[in-house]
Design a protein that fits this description.
alpha/beta, 2 domains, sugar-phosphatase activity, HAD-like_SPP, six-stranded mixed sheet, HAD_sf, 6 strands, Rossmann fold, 8 helices
């Protein structure tokens, strides 16, 4: 599955390595009920990789609201933290990590550092990654390339030698903008075609 020119693997976290997207969506649904904004699970899923605060900014703009992003994100994240112990890595992705354990690996996520570290610690995935780039580490988030470019830099790898695993179109745009090949992960399984 891994092309010969790829010397490092970069992974999105939520929805790619770990089945956390249902937890995020349930948390957004709770925040929507509390703050009275429209909830659309498919729309929110498509924004995977975008930091929560920016999602609230988009909701404000598209729904013509004036929600306080800090308050909405606090409620959403508090609920997410209560659900987090139920999160599990996708078995197919664990098998992939094991198969390619000889290659350098990094996480490139739109989650906050605190949330990413909790997910990695609670699932045991922290042992697999020496480099974790989060929303707190870049100014320009996905679909901009910065998250993946910084991950490659920290691994000491050229962008063209990195392969990204992503589950959303926004994440794929970020990988492509970084000049990296990308394999999509659907339902916790990497798609078998060449990137």
């Amino acid at each position: 599955m891994i092309p010969e020119h790829c010397h490092a693997l970069l992974f999105d976290l939520d929805g790619t390595l770990v089945d956390t997207m249902p937890l995020h969506l349930a948390s957004w649904e709770r925040a929507a009920r509390e703050f009275g904004f429209g909830y659309d699970a498919d729309w929110l899923y498509a924004l995977g990789g975008v930091p929560s605060r920016k999602i609230v900014d988009i909701i404000n703009r598209e729904q013509e609201l004036a929600l306080d992003p800090e308050r909405v994100v606090r409620v959403k994240n508090d609920h997410y933290q209560t659900l987090l112990p139920t999160a599990r890595p996708f078995p197919a992705m664990l098998a992939l990590l094991e198969q390619y354990r000889h290659l350098p690996r990094a996480i490139g996520t739109g989650s906050s550092r605190a949330n990413a570290e909790r997910v990695l610690a609670s699932t045991g995935l922290h042992e697999w990654f020496s480099v974790v780039v989060t929303a707190d580490d870049v100014e320009r988030h996905k679909p901009n390339p910065d998250t993946y470019l910084q991950a490659a830099l920290k691994l000491g790898q050229e962008a063209e030698h990195c392969l990204v695993f992503e589950d959303t179109p926004i994440g794929r745009q970020a990988a492509t903008a970084a000049g990296m090949a990308c394999i999509m992960v659907v339902g916790g399984r990497p798609q078998t075609g060449r990137p």
